[in-house]
Amino acid sequence: MTHAGFVLASYAAAALIVGALVVRAVLSAKSAKARLAALEARGVRRRSAP
Amino acid sequence: MSAFAALVRRDLVLAARIGGGGYLSLLFFMVVVALVPFALGPDLNLLSRIGPAILWLAAVMATLIGLDRLFQADEEDGSLDVMLGASLPLELAILAKVLAHWLTTGLPLALCVPLFGLLVALPAEAMAPTALTLLIGTPGLTAIGAVGAALTATMRRGGLILAVIVAPLMVPSLIFGVSAANAAMGGTVPFTTPLAILGAISLVALVTAALAGAAALRGGE
Amino acid sequence: MTATGLAASFWNLANPTRFLALSGRVLPWLAGLAALVTAAGLYMAFFTAPPDYQQGDTVRIMFVHVPSAWLALFLYAMMSLSALGTLVWRHPLADVSQKAAAPIGAAFTLLCLITGALWGKPMWGTYWVWDARLTSVFVLFLIYCGILALWRSIDDPGRAARAVAILTLVGFVNIPIVKFSVDWWNTLHQPASVFRLDGPAIHPTILVPLLVMAVGLSLVAIALHLSGMRTEILNRRVRTLTILQADHPSEGGI
């Protein structure tokens, strides 16, 4: 493969960036859910909540 | 229209007063132009070739540096609320403030180009065209900056974020301003072509500033 | 369905709770599909696409470079549409959609720049060329950075959304002007040897993997956007509840 280093580096950069986006999405979703659950466990509710 | 004139006069008076700092952007412009030869070396051939670029970059920076107070000061002392409720449309009030700001920054910069041009060995035949490009281009710079100033009016530290937001939007003005000034120093492009586009960009920027700035100030409430 | 029925279902979807329920069902399937299509695209990019007779294997960089460029623009368009939703229609989900799209768009713009530089080194002999297209994308990246910075500097989510919406739309008006001026600037300073992709039409053996990768990465971006919107809705609820609790410490006290 010619210039394999550059091709592999491009795909590594793509994997890194997309991977970082996915990890960030999963972690932030998890922490938001946890914080919401913690608040609701303490009995704080929104007025419009069922 | 008298309200418009009154607003312009008020801002000019404020800029001229002690603490107003109307002259500061001109001093800043001078300092930036003076720093460039220290970075590049005193090679006059090089300096004269990039002279218009230096002047334009300095103008962009001088415009950016003073803009964060454009609406912030009014927000602090409450006159922004008066403007929001006044019979003069907010869009026109913004244009009045842009005009006043330009009269204290862009206009002096453009008029001082013959002086600062000497420092960067700008050829004599390029002095007037470079001044003309700044005269036409700086209202656009101020207008684009005014949008950023309106968006950051309520922020305590608006200056840095203002520069980050607004600088990329100034790229077209910079390109055509420097192109026009370089075209006056020779080249294949006639001087008027980039100059006309620069004028168009400034006009579009003024309209954008009026509309977007008004929306930003109303939305900031 | 009648017009009013359609409008009603639109507003039902606009209800954040409904949106959470619906998107929660869609998201796993969407994410799975995105992974599947991207995996197929990667396989084709590495094993079925032939090396270019001029560029050799570096043409494989195109399979990430072009989709990232497309996504950089697509996500900006999505942000602009959401910005209109925020300013004009005050759509409840528009703020959330704007905020979720910004980091994804900035990331793909960055990816486009990185892969462009890695493609440029073997083709042009240097990592960075002030080529018209690269330069425009660079300015787009700067605009994205400004938008992200503005999001982070205003505390109140509603006010932040309106401010960012204005900046996004100003940027939207500005991007064609930037593109035009950078093209003009580039023709004035044309570097000697610039390689161009537009020559003969792209051969299907290259085009098909490119399209599959574009669809795959678009699905990835849409799944990330949906997930980001869900998280942002939850974060806003946390914020509301925290303020509520601070206002009435007796209710549900600690």
CA-based gyration radius of chain C: 22 Å
The largest β sheet of chain A comes out as: none
- Return Rg of chain A in Å: 20 Å
Strand content of chain C: under 5%
Overview of this protein structure:
The complex is a heterotrimer of chains A (50), B (221) and C (254). Chain A is an all-alpha fold. Chain A contains one helix and no strands. Chain A starts with a helix and ends in a 9-residue tail after the last helix. In chain A, 22% of the residues are buried. The model of chain A has no long low-confidence stretch (mean pLDDT 83). Chain B has 221 residues and is mainly alpha-helical. Chain B has one domain. Helix content of chain B is 81%, strand content 0%. Chain B is built from twelve helices and no strands. In chain B, helix 1 runs parallel beside helix 6, helix 9 packs across helix 10 and helix 9 packs antiparallel against helix 11. Chain B is globular. Chain C is mainly α. Chain C has one domain. Helix content of chain C is 80%, strand content 0%. Chain C has seven helices and no strands. At the A-C interface, helix 1 of A face helix 3, helix 4 and helix 7 of C.
In short:
The complex is a heterotrimer of chains A (50), B (221) and C (254). Chain B has 221 residues and is mostly helical. Chain B contains 12 helices and no strands.
Features:
heterotrimer, B: 221 residues, mainly alpha, 12 helices, C: mainly alpha, 7 helices, 80% helix
Mind sketching the topology for me?
The complex is a heterotrimer of chains A (50), B (221) and C (254).
Chain A: H1 4-41
Chain B: H1 2-16, H2 24-40, H3 44-67, H4 69-77, H5 79-85, H6 90-104, H7 106-111, H8 113-119, H9 124-151, H10 158-166, H11 171-184, H12 192-219
Helix pairs in contact in B: 1-6, 2-3, 3-9, 3-10, 3-11, 6-9, 6-12, 9-10, 9-11, 9-12, 11-12
Chain C: H1 3-14, H2 16-48, H3 62-89, H4 94-124, H5 132-153, H6 157-188, H7 204-247
